[in-house]
Design brief:
Length: about 325
C-alpha cells in the first residue's frame, strides 16, 4: 500500500521557512542527479534556515503566539502525561452520571512518585474535537476533576493540572447543569487542599474554564502559550464590534507568558524548542517533566499549612495596584 508523507501544518509567519526548506531540498536533489558536491552551500543554507527560525520565534507578536498555542499538532494533556510518566491509569466519571471527555484525569507515577494528573483534552482532527467539545469542559468535567483532587488529597498525592481550553462549554445545557457553580466550587476547594498543586498552561488558557483547574501553589506556563480572561476574537467583538481586530485585542489583553510573568500571575516560563512545542514534542515534554520535579521537590519541603498560605497569598496579590498622587 502506498503511503503519503504527512505535510507540516504551516502558520502564516512560517512560510519563509518552508520556502527556504524547499529550496534546500531542490538544490540537494539537483546536486545528487548531477553528481555535484554542494555540501558547503547546503550547510550555509541550513544555518540560515536555523537563524531565520530563531529570529521569527523570538519576536512573535501576541496574536502569533496565540496561533502557536492553538496549533493542531501542539502536544496535548494526554501526550504529555503518556510521555513523562512511568505509569498512568485514567479514571472516569463525576459520580453524578457523566464523564466529560474534554477534561481527563487519573493516577500516575512521575519519577516513581504517585501523583494525580488531570487536564483539558482537545482533539487531533475535527471528529475528535467534536467528541471532546474542542477542550471545553462541561460542569461534569469540573466535578470529575474535583473528585480526583479530593482523592489525591485523601491519599497524600500531589495534584498536577494541565490547562488547554478556550473556556468552559458555553451552552444553555451547561448553564442549566450549573457551570458557574461547578467552577466556583473548584476554586474554593482547591485553596483548601493540603497536597502540593502545580498548574501548567500548555496551550490556550481561557477564562473560568482554565481557572476551574488553575488554583495552584505554582503556576507554570509554556513560552508560546496564552492565558487570558477572554479570547481576543470575543474581546474585539465586544470592544470594537469587529472580530477582525483580534490581533489588536491580543496585544491589549497581556496574554503572553512574558506579560503574565511580569504581572506576577505565573511563577515560571517553560522554554519551548525553536519552532514551538509541536516541532519537538519530546524535548518540550522533558522540559515540563524537569520543571514539575523541581517544583515538587521544593513544595514537598513545606507543611500543608505553609502550602495553603502560599496559595492564598499568591492569589490575593493578583490585581493589587498602587495609586500615585499627582
Amino acid at each position: 500500500m502506498a503511503t503519503t508523507e504527512r505535510k507540516p501544518l504551516l502558520l502564516d509567519f512560517e512560510k519563509p521557512l518552508a520556502e527556504l526548506a524547499s529550496r534546500i531540498e531542490q538544490i540537494r536533489k539537483l546536486a545528487e542527479e548531477n553528481g555535484v558536491d554542494v555540501s558547503n552551500q547546503i550547510r550555509q543554507l541550513e544555518a540560515r534556515a536555523m537563524q531565520l527560525r530563531e529570529e521569527i520565534f523570538t519576536s512573535l507578536s501576541p496574536s502569533q503566539r496565540l496561533q502557536v498555542a492553538r496549533h493542531p499538532r501542539r502536544p496535548s494533556t494526554l501526550d504529555y502525561i503518556q510521555t513523562i510518566t512511568d505509569e498512568w491509569f485514567e479514571l472516569h466519571g463525576d459520580r453524578s452520571g457523566s464523564d466529560d471527555p474534554a477534561l481527563i484525569g487519573g493516577v500516575a507515577r512521575l519519577a516513581g512518585q504517585p501523583v494525580v494528573m488531570l487536564g483539558h483534552q482537545k482533539g487531533r482532527d475535527t471528529k475528535d474535537n467534536i467528541a471532546r467539545n474542542f477542550g471545553m469542559a462541561t460542569p461534569g468535567g469540573y466535578r470529575k476533576a474535583m473528585r480526583l483532587m479530593e482523592h489525591a488529597n485523601k491519599f497524600g498525592m500531589p495534584v498536577l493540572t494541565f490547562i488547554d481550553t478556550p473556556g468552559a462549554l458555553p451552552t444553555v445545557v451547561a448553564e442549566r447543569q450549573g457551570a458557574g457553580e461547578a467552577i466556583a466550587y473548584n476554586l474554593r476547594e482547591m485553596f483548601c487542599l493540603d497536597v502540593p498543586i502545580i498548574c501548567t498552561v500548555i496551550g490556550e488558557g481561557g477564562s473560568g474554564g482554565a481557572l476551574g483547574i488553575g488554583v495552584g501553589d505554582r503556576i507554570l506556563m509554556f513560552e508560546h502559550s496564552v492565558y487570558t480572561v477572554i479570547t481576543p476574537e470575543a474581546c474585539a467583538a465586544i470592544l470594537w464590534k469587529d472580530a477582525s481586530k483580534a490581533p489588536q485585542a491580543a496585544a491589549v489583553l497581556k496574554m503572553t507568558s512574558y506579560d503574565l510573568k511580569n504581572l506576577g500571575i505565573i511563577d515560571q516560563i517553560l522554554s519551548e524548542p525553536i519552532g514551538g512545542a509541536h516541532s519537538e514534542p519530546l524535548k518540550a515534554a522533558q522540559a515540563l517533566k524537569s520543571a514539575l520535579l523541581d517544583n515538587l521537590e521544593e513544595l514537598g519541603r513545606l507543611t500543608p499549612a505553609e502550602r495553603r498560605q502560599l496559595r492564598y497569598d499568591k492569589f490575593r496579590k493578583m490585581g493589587v495596584f498602587t495609586e500615585v498622587a499627582h
